[in-house]
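Quick check before the chapter quiz. The format below is the same one you will see on the exam, so make sure you can read both the input and the output lines.
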Amino acid sequence: MRVRIIFLLKNRGGHVPFHHQYLLAQMIKGVLIKGGDEKFIQYSFYNFSGLKGQTKISRKGLHFYSSRVTLVLSSPNKPFIDYFLTNLFEFSQVEIGGLYLKPETVELEEQIDLKDSLKFVCISPLVILNSSFNDSTAKRFIPPETDTFSDLLYESTMERMAASDMFDKEQLEGFYKFQVVPDKTYIARLTAAQKKFARIYPVYDRDVKYEIRGYTFPFTLYAAKEVQDFVLHCGLGQFTHKGFGMLDVAHSNPNSRVLKYEFSYA
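Here is the expected output.
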């Protein structure tokens, strides 16, 4: 399921860096640790967006001027989401960069009808290579239209689906159909305008900083419905629990699929 956490912005004009996924990852991890439940502290099958709201750009980053700011959180595990929300709402305020946010309410995104082919947009950068200390491999550029790009995403998705214990071996073997096809028109338009769809981003794991290349562009994914559902709720690619690889279905009206969300944790 995918929920939208709506915060009241207490200091309009406050800012965060352009890329602030690592700040959100630190906040989320802190809330999970606060709850004290080890099975949720170590859980990694979740994904989240960047902060959404009315913004203006400066050298400092993104300044938020809307009265409210939204964060999308997704996971196939409802007890995990309930656990996180219960502990989050015990705080009267959380600080993310230069923003002072008060948790206000939660909305549930209605389930999308899944097909064997869906066009997605990236609402956070998509990372295809893992990283290790003092290794620049993850910064390497791989053209999105190549089989290598699609194959790396297939391998990481199958590994994560196997590790989730949500699928048996026979099911995983049936998910051999998998192809990522980028929107070539979009990429060509950005290239012609000398704009980037691939950048280097920081990510932190156990206090170690890594640099990774993230991609942001629309694409069509050809895969089984179960695979589509998994990446929609757990993200696609590497470092998904760090806020990378969050997707949304293209050409959908997000305001038409919002329900009230009730959560509880015992």
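If your answer matched, good. The two ends are 19 Å apart (CA to CA).
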